[in-house]
Specification:
Length: about 210
């Protein structure tokens, strides 16, 4: 954050967090504008995507370890895989939450920007600002589409993980594990595709940040 925030102001911001306009207004009084908040939220979304990539990969590794389990306690191997699946679900939820936060500040920023353009009296400056707004909105739209596309790939992967984990829970034995190896092969392909999509989204975010930062 650009300026040090007093504990009283932090408390105020937390109290106003449920009301976006009040929140943005409080932040602006401290010299932290919507543009700054948006860049930070895009970076947060990137970070959550990177964390999700690691978590989905980790979940797949534990499921593969369960598939190739050779001796020892099957329950222990299953519990490890289940924990990683649940962590992947939490990571996916965080990605969605942070993308939603990007959208909320973007709507507020672009509305404010458009309103302020109308207050510029000189036509040449008004036109330049409008062109910059249009360019930024195009870049944002492309980035958001990429974010949502990668987000949409998480749900079917999580569903497949859940199906397999529930099936194994009810039939935890070597024969059952062997019977679903084909399912895990498909899951590996889907997770690889998801990670590639997330990388594309992160690249689009980097382009947008470069366009937004001075």
């Amino acid at each position: 954050m650009k300026a040090l925030v007093s504990s009283g102001l932090i408390s105020l911001i937390l109290l106003l967090g449920g009301c976006q306009s009040a929140y943005f207004g409080a932040m602006e009084k401290m010299g932290y504008h919507k543009r700054d908040i948006m860049v930070d939220r895009v970076k947060d979304a990137q970070e959550s995507q990177q964390d999700a990539q690691k978590q989905f990969s980790s979940a797949l590794e534990e499921m593969q370890a369960l598939l190739h389990h050779n001796g020892g306690d099957l329950e222990v191997a299953y519990d490890k895989a289940k924990d990683e699946y649940e962590s992947a679900q939490s990571a996916a939820d965080k990605v969605s939450d942070r993308i939603n936060k990007v959208e909320s500040v973007a709507d507020a920023l672009f509305d404010e920007w458009q309103d302020e353009i109308g207050e510029i009296s000189k036509a040449s400056l008004r036109q330049k600002s409008q062109r910059k707004l249009n360019q930024t909105q195009r870049s944002y739209t492309q980035m958001l589409k990429s974010m949502r596309r990668s987000e949409s790939k998480m749900a079917p992967v999580l569903t497949a993980m859940k199906d397999n984990m529930l099936y194994l829970k009810h039939n935890l034995n070597a024969q059952t594990i062997a019977s679903i190896k084909g399912e895990f092969a498909n899951l590996q392909t889907d997770i690889s595709s998801l990670i590639k999509e997330m990388n594309r989204s992160i690249d689009e975010s980097n382009k947008f940040i470069a366009n937004m930062e001075p």
